[in-house]
Specification:
Blueprint: E1 5-8, H1 14-27, H2 38-46, E2 53-59, E3 62-74, E4 78-88, H3 97-112, E5 116-118, H4 126-134, H5 150-160
Parallel strand pairs: 4-5
Antiparallel strand pairs: 1-2, 2-3, 3-4
């Protein structure tokens, strides 16, 4: 097995981070869904008020995986952390990178004093579900994800002023 390093992403990593985001969108059968650019990632993640933190798995200079997180607040628990995406490039899966990235997220959350780390997983992605459950995560099958996309926001405001 090749050695790897888990580290915080830098500005220069954002083109590769975007490549992995697109790889995930392709895997999830939504190849047209990615609207952001690497410039968006740079300005959003490295400006005066960063909106996210990203860890990367670096294998011999290639970004093979990412874990992108941001803070949340729970009215029940207080400080929380949201794991937006944990992605390992297909050719690097099964080598421990996902577990190493998740471990880094959990350590980071613990250092930040969060009381919850949460994320979503598609119900058909059984390999991811199995992985998360093996790591001790609890899958809340009785909850549904709810969101308004850009069009939904516009429609809502048009109808509710």
């Amino acid at each position: 097995m090749q050695s790897y390093t888990i580290r915080s992403a830098g500005r220069g990593d954002m083109p590769e981070v975007l490549r992995l985001i697109q790889e995930l969108a392709d895997y999830e059968k939504e190849p047209e869904a990615v609207e952001i650019t690497s410039d968006d990632l740079v300005s959003d993640g490295f400006g005066s008020r960063p909106l996210f933190h990203c860890f990367v798995a670096d294998v011999a200079g290639e970004i093979a995986g990412i874990a992108l997180i941001y803070p949340r607040y729970s009215t029940w628990k207080g400080m929380a952390l949201h794991l937006e995406d944990l992605i390992v490039s297909e050719k690097y899966r099964g080598r421990g990178l996902g577990k190493a990235l998740l471990s880094e997220v959990v350590k980071y959350g613990h250092e930040q004093g969060v009381r919850r780390i949460c994320w979503e997983v598609l119900d058909w992605n059984q390999s991811a579900i199995d992985f998360y459950e093996k790591q001790g995560a609890k899958i809340l099958r009785d909850w549904d994800v709810v969101h308004l996309d850009a069009q939904g926001i516009a429609r809502y405001l048009d109808n509710n002023g």
